Amino acid sequence: MVNDYLKKFEFNYESSATGSFLVVSTDAGENVLLYQVEMLANNPNRNILPLDIRQKDSKHNFYYNITSKLALSQYLRRNKLKRDDFINIFKDILKTILSSKDYLLSDRSYILNEDYIYIVPNTMEVSLAYLPLNIDINVNDQLKNFTMNFIMFSANIDETNNDNFLQRILNLLKSDTFSILEFSKLLNDLKLETDIPKPEVQKPVIQEHNVPVQPAPAPAAPKASAPRPNIPKAPVSKPDVPKSGIPKPNVPRPAPQGPVSAAPAKPAVNTAEKTVVRIKYKTGVLIAGAILQAVIIIGSIALLASGAMDSLGNEPIVNMLGIGILAGALSYAVWKTVLNEKNKVETVSTVRERPAAKPQINMEKRNFTTVSNNQSIPPINKAPSQPESNFNNAASTPNSLNETTVIFPSPLEETVYLGTSNSYPYLQGTMNGVMEQIIINKPSFVIGRLKSQVDYISQNNAVGKVHAEIISRDGRYFVKDLNSRNGTFVNGIRLAANTEHEIKNNDKITFANSEYTFIIP
């Protein structure tokens, strides 16, 4: 396997007041390319982890700063990878490898393993670990095997786009002519396909103007819409008239009298004004068409009654049929001219609509009681994603949300039972009279501030975006710090990053400066 060369390295994690570090150790006999270390120190690259070398116990120890970053393998365990995210991750990897020569680095010295590739959780920016050593491997084979393993085993990739992008990548990986440059070109093509705009915004414009679609307007159409413009005038005085039987003349608006002052308690019915654009034919053109039609009908009748057609020697029925055909042809010509698109006009009318009745909100005043330190109250059993209070205080500014309130009013002498969880372990913290409970209801439960990546959203700015993970396995529980800047502590001892530490009932767990007690029911 191409990754067999990694077996000669030891991988560990350390945490200190300055942050979290991935530590890669190798024998002191390895030739470290110090000029590459200096090059990275003097030319920081966002896609390469910051590197520091320390000599200890006859070993070279490479310290990579991974503070506030998340291992790619950790992200893949909890998320389905979208098409664009997949493309962006590999574009970052290839861009970093291809730009190595600009930094006098080797394209063969990057660690291509999802456990040691790191991303920024909220931007998905990739950072690679670089080994400043002479490593003799084929970079094309290394990248090919990593990508194939990533697609087949490591990642759950969303393929709902139906563009077969994964199959195109796999076909390239299986080809004998695979190279980094060809892979980069394919990813750029896939990215361009994503960025092509899709022109598809025409129908909403018609709906926006509320223009009704009329398949075949008839001459009688204006009659149906004639009374509509008078609609807004009818309800003008109704909204301010209460239903108490007071006569309309006694409701002056400028200076309401005593009985009328009660009107605000029962607000007038709100009406929403709606502008409607309608298309119809010009009235004058329609009238002219109607007159011409009448002339044709009268003329046909007069011609038939005058007996002028008798001189042709035809039967009366033939004369009637001929006159009818002639009248129909003239009528068709008249109305085809009248109902021309040029004779259409737009009419704008304002219609007042009474909105649908909204459910009334109970605005009854409630009594709020703050739970103090000397009061004992069972913890509220809440879903972990919605904490009942903002327990964590990164800033010293007082916040009214940092209080636990009893929402249901009841006499002070009565005890209100709020319930608790008997099936899941939970974290419970108290500070300044505030009680907070986090129920651990998943085998992998992540705590942090980044809503899209965690199960419990902390409001404490000292807590990392993806701070720590609590793991349930075979009836035992573990906590793991996820490279947080301010650290995770168990009973006052800071944990090494990315290392599972078993926790037991009543252990004190601290995320940055938010302290909790771990309770197993």
Automatic annotation (TrEMBL):
PROSITE patterns, alphabetized: FHA_DOMAIN
Q: Which Gene3D superfamilies match?
A: 2.60.200.20
Decide whether keyword Transmembrane is in the record: yes
- Looking at the Swiss-Prot or TrEMBL record, what is one Pfam family this protein matches? DUF6382
Alphabetical UniProt keywords: Membrane, Transmembrane, Transmembrane helix
Residues forming the FHA domain are 445-495
Give the matching InterPro entries.
Answer: Cell_Proc_Reg/RNA_Proc, DUF6382, FHA_dom, SMAD_FHA_dom_sf
Task: State the source organism's domain of life.
Answer: Bacteria
Q: Where is the composition biased (Polar residues)?
A: 368-396
Which residue intervals make up region (Disordered)?
212-266, 367-396
Transmembrane feature ranges:
284-305, 317-335
> This protein is called what?
Membrane protein
Q: What is the lineage of its organism?
A: Bacteria, Bacillati, Bacillota, Clostridia, Eubacteriales
